[in-house]
Design brief:
There is one protein chain. The chain is an all-alpha fold. The protein is built from ten helices and no strands. It has a domain of 133 residues. α5 packs across α10. The protein is elongated and about 55 Å long. The N terminus is likely disordered. This is Helix-turn-helix domain-containing protein.
């Protein structure tokens, strides 16, 4: 659980090398899906619409991604990998050269930035039980938080504390707070930082 410099955990659809033609087809489908998300919003994007946009049969999309949630996760793959690379190997405050609490706060703010920019796609991907709690991307983030809590000297059930911290960053909850409750992204980020301080027992106002 502690080796944050291990290779990135493979994300959706990235387990084996692809033939050149398969890689081209995958990119064609993901480009079509991204265009539809931008044009119509994620809730209007169906496997049929992606197939029509890409000029292929619907069966091709299902064979490639398995389900709509699988497609949404594939769309997120690139952004997730960039975030993973930043907190595993990048410069501070996300990267290894910063103190654990600083990295933890930076991670939360970076993920919240992803939600505000790509929230609907994140929400669609999280909506599948198959990916919401057992997906590789979530596993990497959870392991990272556990490692930072250990490095910060946190006592108690660190695994469950990490789950609590990550749950507060879930796209569905964050979008509900922003859209339905009118809470600003800045306030959500500040509150997550306060939660991180409380769990690590540091910062002003923390006993």
């Amino acid at each position: 659980m502690r080796d944050v410099n291990s290779p990135l955990i493979p994300l959706v659809d990235a387990e084996i090398p692809e033939r050149c033609d398969a890689a081209r087809n995958r990119k064609l489908l993901l480009d079509a899906a991204a265009d539809l998300v931008a044009e119509r919003g994620v809730d209007a994007v169906t496997m049929e619409a992606v197939a029509a946009k890409a000029g292929v049969g619907k069966g091709t999309v299902f064979r490639r991604f398995g389900s709509r949630s699988g497609l949404m996760n594939a769309l997120l793959d690139h952004t997730e990998r960039e975030l993973q690379h930043a907190f595993m190997f990048g410069p501070p405050p996300l990267g290894p050269d910063a103190p654990p609490l600083v990295r933890l706060i930076a991670f939360g703010r970076a993920r919240l930035d992803m939600v505000t920019v790509q929230g609907d796609v994140l929400r669609a991907a999280e909506g599948s039980p198959e990916f919401r709690y057992s997906g590789p991307a979530r596993a990497v983030s959870l392991r990272h938080i556990v490692t930072l809590l250990h490095d910060a000297g946190v006592d108690g059930d660190v695994d469950l504390l990490a789950v609590v911290l990550l749950a507060a960053l879930e796209a569905g909850l964050v979008l509900h707070q922003i859209r339905a409750l009118g809470i600003s992204p800045e306030r959500i980020a500040d509150n997550w930082e306060d939660l991180a301080h409380r769990i690590t027992r540091t910062g002003p106002g923390v006993p």
